[in-house]
Amino acid sequence: MNSEKIKMADVKIPRIPHIKLEREGSLPRIELSTPSTPTTPTTPRKMPVYPSSGTGMANKSSSYSPSIPPNTKKLRMRSFLWVKPVDTTGSVTSGLFAQLLPVLVVNIGALSSGLAMGYSAILLPQIRPDYEPLEDLVHHKYNFTSTNYRPFTADQDQGSWIASIFGIGAVFGGLTSAALGSKYGRRVCIIMLSLVDLLGWILMAGSQSLSMMLCGRFLAGFVAAGYSPCIQIYVAEITQAKNRGWMSGLTVPIMSIGTLIMYTLGSYVPWHVAAAVCAPVPVALGFAVCFLYESPYWYFQQGEEKSAYHALEKFRGKSENCVSESFQIQEHLKGEEQEMGVLQSLKSIFGERKYFRPFLILNTLFLFMLFSGKFAIEFYAVDIFTKAGGQMDKYLSAVIIAIIQLVGSLMFLPLVRLVSRKILICTSSFIMGTALVVLGLSMYSKVSGSMMSSFSELDWLPLVSVVVYMVAAPIGLCSIPFMYIAEFYPSQLRSVLGGLTIALSNLELFVVVKTFPDLQRLVGDHGVYWIYAGACFLAIVFTVAYVPETKDKSLIQVENKFDRLRRTHRASPWVSPMPSPSVNSVRKLQFQSQMFTQ
């Protein structure tokens, strides 16, 4: 018996493969330390018979190759731990195009919003009672503006209502978008808004009275505020973290392109034709969005795991592995409540820190952005250009202003990929504040004594300050807060909080634009610009102190940044894995006391 044990001890048992599970970058994988097990033979093999002698057994052991018995069950991994191999031969741009195409489709709504924002600038001069067609502004063969089609007129007070009712409609549009997006999803909400958008352009194109035009402008503002959170949330939820920044930033230049098109169009055609030309835009939007998937987050919240996985595959392309990402999103949303309604969300905002903290931070940042004067200066840009020394036609001034904004918006796209969000906000705010200070000094030099004579001699300085200010505004401070709507807010309240933020920002916008002429009378032009410069510098301090960095971070990581309630409490303030000194010190004192007594 002992000799048999000795002989068996000489046998070299084949090494069992060591299976190692790792998680690297949230991607489960399996590694084998030895080659995989041989394939099961089709015909049954007999187990090897070893000779009785020790030397023979040793010789056999060197060439021993284990075989799997024919009745052994095979293990097939058909769970989320299995990772589909990535198609390295596929095109790298396929995944990028799979995300870029739906992003461009939903941003047709941003194009319509830009057209609506620029419409009042070309409408109001043509419906004034004292309006006379200026034939010398355009070439004769394109002289459509010489038409006398004016079914109604609007004086200065009525014209201010046409311009300001856009913001009133935007307040209601943000609230409605919160309710629709929460209940039906972002994709269905965009389709519904496109129908309202079409109705608004039809009313503006066929207006026969002031009331019809006011209704059309109200619907235009309603839709513009509704599009904004839906577009930002949808883009953020379907794109990868490495592409989310610049793809979300596409909304700003596309909106600037819409404003530029409207300014250019209004220089050649009358106001009712310009509105009619814009009517097909929401039709194209609603038709194209019908062929898109909803975001994977929405499908998971509704319990449609299969649709969520198909949507994720569609938005990632063939060359990307989306099993791990799907598993990660599902695990994150497990145990979370479904997207809440408006009333329930309002109660939760002030009751839980993970909702209240991002809501407070983002709305404060929006407050600084609006009081930086970007929109007020944009609305009164023609008058500011004239005061700054520009001697050009008002139509040409509007086109130049739109081109300047477009240049700043296009500069934002490469910068948001290379530079962090906080650096962009701080740099943009500093340039805007400095330009406003210089512009204020130039304006003050015209009304002051000889102390500011050096500024009054530089006629080009005010104009350059305005241009620099308008280029720097969309680079950071006036663009990134809109991206934060989708990045800051939790998934279950993303639509509601985004709609509320847009509604509050439009109320603040209404206050800023309405108070601009009053502030000019109270503190002068220079005082207004210095107040706006102070808001820019305060935005820098607030961003450095309270705004977290979200560049190249997933939505789950950003959400956990605000969710302090899930953080485990340590027993001692010392950093893990360092052992607690309190326990060691007590044991050491006990040991020393025992040694001392002995």
Describe the structure.
This protein has 598 residues and is mainly α. It has two domains: 2-55, no CATH class; 99-292 and 336-559, Growth Hormone, Chain: A, CATH 1.20.1250.20. Helices cover 66% and strands 2% of the residues. The chain is built from 26 helices and two strands. The protein has helices at residues 2-9, 54-62, 93-106, 108-123, 156-184, 186-205, 210-238, 241-248, 251-266, 271-278, 280-289, 296-301, 305-316, 323-333, 342-349, 353-370, 374-379, 381-388, 394-418, 421-447, 453-456, 460-472, 480-488, 494-546, 555-562, 581-597, and strands at 19-23, 28-32. It has a two-stranded antiparallel sheet with strand order 1-2. A hairpin with a 4-residue loop joins strand 1 (19-23) and strand 2. The longest helix has 53 residues, at 494-546. The protein is globular, with a radius of gyration of 33 Å.
- Structure annotation, total helices: 26
Strands, total number: 2
Task: Give the uncertain stretches in residue-range form.
Answer: 16-65, 72-84, 134-146, 565-583
Helix content: 55-70%
Q: Work out the radius of gyration.
A: 33 Å
CATH architecture classification name of the largest domain? Up-down Bundle
| H/E element order | HEEHHHHHHHHHHHHHHHHHHHHHHHHH
Strand content: under 5%
CATH homologous superfamily heading of the largest domain = MFS general substrate transporter like domains
According to CATH, the fold-level topology of the largest domain is Growth Hormone, Chain: A
Head-to-tail CA distance between termini:
55 Å
Report mean pLDDT, rounded to a whole number: 74
3D shape:
globular
Order of adjacent strands in the largest pleated sheet: 1-2
Characterize the largest beta sheet: strand count, sense, and whether it forms a barrel.
Answer: 2 strands, antiparallel
Overall structural domain count: 2
Structural class: mainly alpha
Give the assembly state of these chains: single chain
What's the CATH class label of the largest domain?
Answer: Mainly Alpha
